[in-house]
Amino acid sequence: MGACFSSKNRKNARTSTVMEAIISDNSSFEYTNLDKQTRLKYLNWTYLHLAVFLSQKEAVESLLRQGFDVNAQDFHGETPLHLAAVQQNELIYSLLIDAGADNSIENKKGETATFIANLNRKSFSTDLPIYSDSPTKNEEDSPAKNEEDQLFKYDTESSPGKSKRLN
């Protein structure tokens, strides 16, 4: 058999096709029968990491429906949720949280996705929504102090390691 028919080459061709579909935001691409263990070279990303990094909402939704590991960590310990936080992508951040992303996972620097989101919020803009690791009882019982507080608030006290959207 020629090299072009080896299983490794078929897997590489499939990986390239999936990557191209994610990169080009090909909404008609069928993200099915993908190997959930496939890791992209260099950063050790899953397809889900790539889709989040490229802000491809439809690809993220499809990969989540297929059961891709929402808490998979790359070489730096970053999960797809970390990448969404770095990009301040509230929509994808919410999709990941709703799919069970654990916002208490720390990267190799000891940073959670929530920490990164808050750090970026302070660095780049004052009108971005707040990401909250664990709201205090007073915050839960009282109305939001301002519009920002109301936009994006998560509860992690009810089940540690998991969070749910409060609004």
From TrEMBL:
Pfam families, alphabetized: Ank_2
Keywords: ANK repeat
Compositionally biased intervals (Basic and acidic residues): 136-156
Highest taxon, organism lineage: Eukaryota
Region (Disordered): 126-167
ANK repeats (start-end): 43-75, 76-108
Protein name stated in the entry: Ankyrin repeat domain-containing protein
Organism of origin: Blepharisma stoltei
